[in-house]
Automatic annotation (TrEMBL):
Residue ranges occupied by any DUF218 domain in the UniProt entry: 57-174
Name by which UniProt lists this protein: YdcF family protein
Source species: Streptomyces purpurascens
UniProt-listed InterPro entries: Cell_Envelope_Assoc, DUF218
UniProtKB keywords: Membrane, Transmembrane, Transmembrane helix
Keyword Transmembrane belongs to the record: yes
Domain of life per record: Bacteria
One family name in Pfam for this protein: DUF218
Membrane-spanning intervals of the chain: 21-41
């Protein structure tokens, strides 16, 4: 038996009401797409490949999960691109930023170990242990590590948001989107970006402090000094 308190929504019966409903739906769709449009506009001319990205002192690699303590395939692809940029002399230092919110989960250290295995000297790697999301990583790169310009490395579905947020945080950024297999994770990541764009726009507009800020760290400056 139908609950008498529950009433199914009724569509407008008049043409005027139906027209207003359509207009409201269209306006909602436009508003929902505005953050994504902003990201594409900001990052549009700042996306490059590993072959043509401008030479920059620092590359920033964003965490993308661990599998049994090792970088996930998506994160490994990002790190491979960073190692390639270093070997080609396109960057001097790699800032790895990720989650280390608990003792048994340490993205930055796993990323460091992977990079050293692939030819990047340990002294050229700097770890940010409080990169809990993209905005936090961008703000900390600027305020904590003193990064003014960087090459950002991530998958294609994420790189535009990374560039837009780092630009908003004051880091002059170019993005390198790495290849990825179009599996379930890729499709999930792409769908997630639609919703993440809204938060990104709010972060860029209101510029909140990251979850953890802390004191300035000279890691990037010291690593660059060893490169001279």
């Amino acid at each position: 038996m139908r609950d008498p308190k529950f009433r199914r929504p009724r569509l407008p019966r008049t043409r005027r009401g139906q027209r207003r409903l359509v207009q409201a739906v269209m306006a909602g769709c436009v508003l929902a797409l505005l953050p994504a449009t902003w990201m594409y506009a900001v990052a549009g001319d700042r996306l490059r490949t590993a072959a043509d990205v401008p030479r920059t002192d620092v590359a920033v690699v964003f965490g993308a999960g661990l599998w049994d303590g090792e970088p996930s395939p998506y994160l490994a692809h990002r790190l491979d691109a960073a190692a390639e940029l270093y070997r080609k002399g396109r960057v001097e230092v790699v800032l790895v930023t990720g989650d280390n919110s608990r003792e048994d989960y340490d993205e930055p250290d796993a990323m460091r170990v992977y990079l050293t295995r692939h030819g990047v000297p340990d002294g050229r790697i700097v770890s940010d242990y409080a990169g809990f999301d993209t905005w936090d990583s961008c703000v900390r790169a600027k305020k904590i590590f003193g990064v003014d310009e960087a090459v950002l490395i991530s998958q294609g579905f994420h790189i535009r948001r990374a560039v837009a947020l780092c630009q908003a945080a004051g880091v002059e950024s170019y993005g390198v989107g790495v290849d990825a297999v179009h599996d379930a994770t890729w499709y999930y990541g792409g769908a997630r970006e639609i919703f993440a764009a809204g938060k990104a726009a709010l972060d860029a507009a209101f510029r909140p402090d990251p979850r953890f800020l802390g004191p300035q760290e000279p890691g990037v400056e010291r690593a660059l000094a060893t490169a001279e």
